[in-house]
Design brief:
Keywords: Membrane, Transmembrane, Transmembrane helix
Organism: Cordyceps fumosorosea (strain ARSEF 2679) (Isaria fumosorosea)
Number of strands: 12
Largest sheet: 8 strands, antiparallel, barrel
Strand content: 15-25%
Helix content: 25-40%
Order of helices and strands: HHHHHHHEEEEEEEEEEEE
Strand order of the largest sheet: 1-2-3-4-5-6-10-12
Radius of gyration: 65 Å
Distance between the termini: 191 Å
Number of helices: 7
Protein name: Tat pathway signal sequence
Structural class: alpha+beta
């Protein structure tokens, strides 16, 4: 019985020894031949073990109970450490490199590479974009200034041409619109022709009578002279009208928009009057050494009766044609009082003539309508 129990105790140890003592079987190659050069144990690829975290207290003390027994260390040799990761085959490394190359050559990889390249070159691209934008802004500014100058020149040229055309246009074309408006106005507003006759010619302001002349120069008293004026209304009040000339008068200065005053309003003697002063140049008719004489401040005055003709009242016309004869009496006077140093006369070469001097009287040209003597 004791022997049987002893055999049971020694059984496991002997079995272990027999397992260790068993010889390893020879290894075969892929072709089936025996290769004695191959190692008996499998090759172990050295791997770097992951660091194991230590407890807070550091390395634990070695306890005698934790140490293996001599028998166990002899019978059971330590196993090689298990690697944390399987060994990497060269084939796997080649496959990984080829996958990275294919990923780079793929469209998505190209896009990522371009994006990385663009991110790297972004500062340079931003600077180039800003420089291009500045150049474009400067170019647009220069173009804008040039266009503004061209537009200003075009507008100025157009205005100058229009003013020149208006200045040098014929009297008939410049008064067409005014004539139409005046023809539709209420009397005394309108466009009229004023037929007058020369009633008086006085040369008392000059020492030589030939240096003062009244129109018409070739005729004497009783000669006819016609004026063309436009009367327009400017609103209520005593100065509610103004008068403009057409420039068709054969003599006298040209005027426009002169204020006219109503005298004796709503009475039989109601009349419209206006006056202005201007310089007058006279060419002597005797053909002497004097070429022309100039008088300054010659007064031109006109009086238009609106309710009387030849001492009789008349009804105001409601519709009148353009430049119809003025229906009432009228008087036009042009005069110059004696002034020292006038007239100023010169010869054909522009040299002054001293033998023409001022006299003690007045020079006068008086015109009236046929109904007014």
């Amino acid at each position: 019985m004791s022997q049987h129990r002893q055999s049971l105790v020694d059984g496991p140890a002997s079995s272990r020894a027999s397992i260790v003592s068993v010889a390893q079987l020879p290894r075969r190659t892929e072709t089936g031949d025996f290769n004695r050069a191959l190692p008996r144990m499998p090759l172990r690829v050295p791997q770097k073990n992951a660091r194991r975290s230590l407890p807070p207290g550091g390395i634990p003390p070695v306890s005698p109970h934790n140490l293996p027994s001599p028998t166990e260390s002899t019978l059971y040799p330590s196993e090689p450490p298990t690697p944390t990761s399987p060994p990497v085959s060269p084939l796997k490394l080649t496959a990984a490199a080829s996958s990275e190359t294919s990923e780079l050559n793929s469209p998505s990889g190209s896009i990522l590479a371009l994006q990385k390249l663009a991110d790297g070159e972004k500062p340079a691209d931003d600077k180039e974009w800003l420089d291009h934008r500045r150049r474009r802004c400067r170019f647009m500014l220069v173009v804008g200034v040039f266009m503004a100058v061209v537009a200003g020149l075009a507008v100025g040229l157009a205005v100058g041409l229009s003013n020149g055309n208006a200045k040098y246009s014929t009297p008939s074309s410049s008064t067409t619109t005014t004539t139409t408006a005046a023809a539709a106005a209420v009397f005394p507003a309108g466009a009229y022709s004023f037929d007058t006759y020369l009633r008086e010619n006085s040369t008392g302001c000059t020492s030589r009578a030939s240096t003062w002349r009244c129109y018409p120069e070739t005729g004497g008293p009783g000669s006819r002279a016609t004026f063309h004026w436009t009367v327009q209304s400017s609103g209520p009040g005593p100065s509610s009208y103004y008068v403009s000339g057409t420039g068709e008068e054969p003599f006298g200065p040209t005027f426009a928009n002169l204020p006219a005053t109503i005298l004796d309003a709503d009475r039989p003697t109601e009349r419209l009057t206006f006056a202005f002063a201007a310089n007058a140049t006279v060419t002597p008719a005797d053909g002497g050494r004097v070429a022309n004489c100039t008088y300054t401040g010659v007064v031109f005055r006109a009086t238009l009766w609106t309710r009387r003709r030849g001492g009789q009242a008349f009804a105001a016309p409601t519709h009148q044609a353009a430049y119809a004869p003025w229906p009432g009496d009228l008087e036009v006077v042009q005069y110059k009082n004696s002034t020292i140093g006038e007239p100023v006369c010169v010869d054909a070469q522009g040299r002054g003539v001293a033998d023409v001097q001022a006299a003690g009287g007045s020079c006068l040209c008086r015109y009236t309508s046929t109904s007014l003597s």
